[in-house]
Automatic annotation (TrEMBL):
Domain of life: Bacteria
Key words of the record: Carboxypeptidase, Hydrolase, Protease, Serine protease
Segment forming the signal sequence: none
Domain LD-carboxypeptidase C-terminal: 171-287
PANTHER family: MURAMOYLTETRAPEPTIDE CARBOXYPEPTIDASE, MUREIN TETRAPEPTIDE CARBOXYPEPTIDASE
One Pfam family per UniProt: Peptidase_S66C
SUPFAM superfamilies, per the entry: Class I glutamine amidotransferase-like (SSF52317), LD-carboxypeptidase A C-terminal domain-like (SSF141986)
Designated name of the protein: LD-carboxypeptidase
UniProt family annotation: Belongs to the peptidase S66 family.
Annotated InterPro entries: Carboxypeptidase_A_C_sf, Class_I_gatase-like, LdcA_N, Peptidase_S66_N, Peptidase_S66C, S66_fam
Keyword flag Hydrolase: yes
Length: 300
């Protein structure tokens, strides 16, 4: 996998929205943080654009992202908002410039569509907080992004006593993102190949039976069988039906992988939660899950 170049003081970030609409006003606090980091930024035409719930028409969102990929002055592309819409522009994009001159693509949730597609091109991406609401996340959230972008040493070491954790050590390339997006990409050229890799999943605002449906789909597609390990982040604001499903989201995930022997951890600090640590997708990692602690180390 190719690692994009680290940023330097004075480098320029391209800011776009590949999915839902967002105003320039909403981004002001996050932009102030970028300035504190010594970075410049250019806002794409999608910021402030509007077509129903989207940040402008599909063509506009594709053109905006394409311009940021092709502009050599732009050293990283940071998605401003998630929601839904990124998958609608994937097939409109030409990644040839990105393959020649890789740059960080930053975001999570709906941005998983880009992460997965770019992973299959052999380039690392940054699963991290979108610009919207960055200022309201934990200090660790923004610090983790800054450390990775500027090439500083970075690992995640947390206390964890989640009862469903399956202790063990694993090594492999980190892949994944939002469960709903991974599910929706199955069968396409953006789908992940997970054999021998460590899979990360998280999700938001889903019915429990749908979580089960998605996990069964990943399982039937062979995406769970030969993992090196599984990391489960925030499974946030889940819903049950009038007739209860009988398991919570974590139990559903655990049930789907119960027959396999690799290490598994839950409640990892990444996803739609206040403490949304950055993850380098495509990077080889070491995962150590004990009864009271989880350590995730990124290999250089």
């Amino acid at each position: 996998m190719i690692t994009p170049s680290k940023l330097q003081i004075g480098d320029c970030i391209g800011i776009v929205s590949t999915a839902r609409k967002i105003s320039k006003e909403e981004l002001k606090p996050a932009l102030q943080l970028l300035e504190k980091w010594g970075l410049q930024y250019v806002m794409g035409k999608t910021i402030g654009a509007e077509e129903n719930q989207f940040a402008g028409h599909d063509d506009l969102r594709a053109e905006d992202f394409q311009k940021m990929m092709d502009d050599p002055k732009i050293k990283a592309i940071w998605c401003a908002k998630g929601g839904y819409g990124t998958v609608r522009i994937l097939d409109k994009l030409d990644f040839s410039t990105l393959k020649k001159s890789p740059k960080w693509v930053i975001g999570y949730s709906d941005v998983t569509a880009l992460h997965s597609h770019i992973h299959n091109l052999g380039i690392e991406t940054l699963h991290a907080q979108i610009l919207q609401n960055l200022e309201n996340k934990s200090e660790e959230t923004s610090a983790s992004i800054k450390n990775i972008l500027f090439g500083n040493p970075y690992k995640i070491d947390i206390e964890s006593t989640a009862k469903l954790n399956r202790p063990g050590k694993a090594e492999g390339i980190l892949v994944g993102g939002n469960l709903s997006l991974l599910y929706s990409l199955c069968g396409s050229n953006s789908a992940l190949k997970t054999e021998g890799k460590i899979l990360f999943i998280e999700d938001l605002d889903e019915y429990l039976y749908h979580v089960d449906r998605m996990m069964m789909n990943l399982k039937r597609n062979g995406m769970l069988q030969n993992l090196a390990g599984l990391i489960v982040g925030g499974m946030t604001d889940m819903h049950d039906s009038k007739i209860p499903f009988g398991k919570n989201a974590e139990e559903i995930v655990y049930d789907a992988v119960s027959e396999y022997n690799y290490p598994v951890c839950f409640n990892f600090p990444a996803g739609h939660i206040d403490d949304n640590r950055a993850l380098i997708l495509g990077r080889k990692i070491e995962l150590d899950i004990s009864k009271r602690e989880i350590t995730l180390s990124f290999k250089l």
